[in-house]
Amino acid sequence: MTGFREPRTKRETGFRVRGRELVNIKNVADRAGVSIATVSHVLNQTRRVRPETAARVRTAIEELGYSQNLAARNLATGRSNILGLIVSDIQNPHFPELTRNFQDQALLHNMEVLVMNTGYDPQRTSDCVRRLIGLRVPGLAIMTTEYDTGLVELVARQNIRAVYYFNPGPLSPLISCILVNYGEGIREAVNHLEELGHRQIAFIGGAPHLQSAMYRRQAFIEQMQARGEGAMRIVDADFSAEGGYYGCSRLLSSAPPTAIVCANDLMAFGAMHCCRDKGLRIPQDISIVGFDNISFSQYSHPPLTTVAIPRDKLGQLAFKALWEMINRQTSEGRVIQLGTRLLVRESTAPPRKN
Amino acid sequence: MTGFREPRTKRETGFRVRGRELVNIKNVADRAGVSIATVSHVLNQTRRVRPETAARVRTAIEELGYSQNLAARNLATGRSNILGLIVSDIQNPHFPELTRNFQDQALLHNMEVLVMNTGYDPQRTSDCVRRLIGLRVPGLAIMTTEYDTGLVELVARQNIRAVYYFNPGPLSPLISCILVNYGEGIREAVNHLEELGHRQIAFIGGAPHLQSAMYRRQAFIEQMQARGEGAMRIVDADFSAEGGYYGCSRLLSSAPPTAIVCANDLMAFGAMHCCRDKGLRIPQDISIVGFDNISFSQYSHPPLTTVAIPRDKLGQLAFKALWEMINRQTSEGRVIQLGTRLLVRESTAPPRKN
DNA sequence: CTGAAAGCGCTAACAC
DNA sequence: GTGTTAGCGCTTTCAG
User: Fold this and answer.
1) Which residues of A touch B128 (CB under 8 A)?
2) Which of A20, B75, B171, B234 has its CA 20 to 30 A from that of A70?
3) Which nucleotides of chain D are near protein (any atom < 7 Å from a CB)?
4) Are B340 and B276 in contact (CB under 8 A)?
5) Residues of chain B with C-beta less than 8 angstroms from the C-beta of A272
6) Residues of chain B found within 8 Å of residue A112, distances taken between Cβ atoms
7) Are B289 and B253 in contact (CB under 8 A)?
8) What residue of B is the nearest CA neighbor of A124?
9) C-alpha to C-alpha distance for A272 and B266, rounded to whole angstroms
10) Which of A96, A112, A299 comes nearest B270 by C-beta?
């Protein structure tokens, strides 16, 4: 059936065969005069090794400049030390802040984080997931609010733990989520403006197909209706500063409102800029409220009144929830509800008396 | 010497032994009625396969929901499909912009990007490199300006291609770099202010141990001296908005300058904020210039005059240089010189007449 | 155009 | 406390 063949050439010189390792665990073992098992165990501290032996191994590692091949390790153990983190827009400061906290936590547990960017495209979220599946990541933080149908199932089928930033449906030992109470935040914002005396309040939303944009938009509508306000104007933009600018310019083109609530800070920046370009002073002529409390919001001029998501916690909580599932410390995923807090700063004031 | 032992249990049921793959290349091969080799070649298009055979394989892949194990692939080929990107501060918008471009390019070439953050700590740069070496990344973009001695050598010894954001010493087929002409940028900034009539120009620098901070600081000193200006005040901060704020407050505490050049935009934001807190109007009472042209600089109020690094190109150029080396399209690394351009916006104006 | 099988570097079960 | 070795899933050489 098949021909017999001499074993292929093995490493004989110090050079690499077929582009292989410069120095591997075998070399270290030889140098230290121990078996490769011992080296492995010293490296991973997976069983007791006599101190002198361990020291010899470590010396050999040092001398040879050995570095463990993680691909091999991952293959042998069947799981990778890389976690996936998928975000909507790495250029929106909200996400770097989250990313940093997530990474810092991961680092403490010797995990790497592969950050992927979808640009708010649900299709790309699934693409990213597929790529991460190939890497056999043990866990995934999907911190985008947009997703294709079937995404959650795709992940679960691979037995990968995941934390979502939206409601992924029924929980399981593989599924957790972090839910921000967008509605409450928007309500606070509207209440604040109403209490200041505003009646013409407009809203600049995110792209209407995004879940998080929908929630905020819907909450705005409900709150305004509850207040019995008819004068309610809504434009949809795209969560970017540019979008905020153009959204605002549309609002100002006829019957300008006295206050604008923006679905995120980035759009609020754009809106502030637009207002000034039209000669409106903030907050004397028009009040602006943002959402997210990205670190820049306090450095804008005037400092932006915004609905704060506890962003320092976001990345940490996501990691923690993921880690618990990966290490099976929970029989079931978690639902983490995150409240918001209105930070009143100088971009809001009572409307001008006419 | 060693005992004989029956071969360990093999996969017999559809279940996993020792936590292994749910579906692997073998399963696909069996299902398609071909050999493993054929599946591999269909997957990677590394040799001609009869169309019908290929189709059968693809059907099997589809039906089984097979996803290639990249750890195994990487182990077998001896190189990973992950590139490392090390940045100083993912929360400084300069870096997300760079990151995004780099990642977009990488994606086009089926590469993943592992982004790591050093927080401006040179020690952490080396740590990151070591972790990436373990992953056997084929290439590394070290876009930090701070580094330990020996870093370049550490990387080169592992035969890893790298692009640096500083001058790494002699080039080699493994080493490229992107050098921003900081000095020229600072000179433009100072010239601009001088031409407006400013004589008391101060400087807020980055952390003094960083190379990029040094360059900018030095250029400022030289340019001021060349102009024969004695009234030159310099404070060192840390490239953050907070740092800019406190640096500025120190400058304003005695003999306030009429203009401030900041070593990056983030510090300029902080400085602007501080000026306003002290009752100074920008630009009437004091002019501010930034450096980097992060996307927010045009949304600040007033829009920030800044020295622009062509940031859209930065990530792309870094990737391109790396890719060329990885594919040995160049016999030698590249030195990419990047010029800057002063964007005059509304944060600068002639000094007030006394 | 296709298949068999060696081997990538490591882990972990088993033997001593 | 330490060593031997099967096997992780894949690529790729060699043989048809």
Assistant:
1) none
2) B171
3) 1-16
4) no
5) 299, 301
6) 114, 131, 135
7) no
8) B107
9) 19
10) A299
For each of chain A's 354 residues, which pLDDT tens digit applies? Answer: 333 344 444 333 333 345 578 899 999 999 999 999 999 999 999 999 999 999 999 999 999 999 999 999 999 998 899 999 999 999 999 999 999 999 999 999 999 999 999 999 999 999 999 999 999 999 999 999 888 989 999 999 998 999 999 999 998 999 999 999 999 999 999 999 999 999 999 999 999 988 889 999 999 999 999 888 666 899 999 999 999 999 999 999 999 999 999 999 999 999 999 999 999 999 999 999 999 999 999 999 999 999 999 988 999 999 999 999 998 878 899 999 999 999 999 999 999 876
Dihedral pair phi/psi, residue B66, rounded to 5°: -75, 140
- Three-state secondary-structure class, residue A342: strand
CA of B74 vs chain A CAs: smallest distance (Å): 6
For residues A93 and A295, the answer to whether their CB atoms sit within 8 Å is yes
Instruction: Compute the 3-state secondary structure of chain B and give helix, strand, coil in percent, each to the nearest 5.
Output: 45, 15, 40
Neighbouring-strand partners of residue B142: B86, B164
Q: How many CB atoms lie within 10 A of CB A52?
A: 8
Q: In terms of C-beta density within 10 A (0-12 exposed, 13-18 middle, 19 or more buried), how is residue A316 classed?
A: middle
- DSSP characters over A126-165: HHHHHHHHHTT-SEEEEE-S---TTHHHHHHHTT-EEEES
Could you tell me if B247 and B235 are in contact, meaning their C-beta atoms sit under 8 angstroms apart? yes
For residues A268 and A262, the answer to whether their CB atoms sit within 8 Å is yes
**Nearest-5° Cα angle at A347, A144 to B204:** 85
Residue A97 dihedral angles phi and psi, to the nearest 5°:
-65, -45
- Tokens representing residue B77 in the block: 């080929």
Mutation target to probe the A interface, by most A beta carbons within 10 A, among B35, B67, B314 is B67
